[in-house]
Amino acid sequence: MPSETGTCCVLQLARQRRLSVHPDQFGMEQDICDVTLWLIEKHGLSRVHVWVDRHYTQIGREIAGVTVMTSPSHPARLTEAAHEAFLALGYTIEDTRADIYGHQFCDGRHSKHETIQAYARIDGALRRWRSP
After folding, report:
1. CA-to-CA distance for 101 and 89, rounded, in angstroms?
2. Superkingdom, according to UniProt (predicted)?
3. Could you tell me the pTM of the whole model?
4. Beta-strand runs (E) in 17-113
5. pLDDT per residue over 75-111, tens digit each?
């Protein structure tokens, strides 16, 4: 999705390419971008990378783990918040200690409108997930 400046997040470009070839295939690009933008807004960060690891055998909404990286460290509270956000979006998180690969991260080049949409989506998912 192009931002107000005309640039586009590389993860969104990858999503567009994937959808042009495999329109029915599940992709987590939007979820990674939305969780990234939600963390930036919620915690007043200038930049953050959300690293999603997957086992080669995992498909759909199965992931091995989530780690949040900020300069110069990766605080546990941000990683826990991202972990909960992915659970709220319907992901199963299970690290079997088998080989993993890291999914591409969101570079944060999104419009303010996209950021507001992402925040509302993740915040709503968390509220529904936490409610009885």
Report:
1. 21
2. Bacteria
3. 0.85
4. 49-55, 62-63, 65-69, 92-93, 100-103
5. 889 999 999 999 999 999 999 999 999 988 998 889 9
**Interior CA angle at 59 toward 121 and 91, to 5°?**
35
Whose tokens are 């992402």? That residue is 118
CA 126 remoteness from chain centre: 14
- Tens of pLDDT, residue by residue over 56-72, are 999 889 999 999 988 76
Q: CB 45: neighbour CB atoms within 10 A?
A: 15
Of 98 and 26, the structure prediction assigns the larger pLDDT to 98
Three-state SS at 57: coil
Asked whether 111 and 4 are in contact (CB, 8 A), the reply is: yes
Distance (Å, whole) CA 121 – CA 19: 21
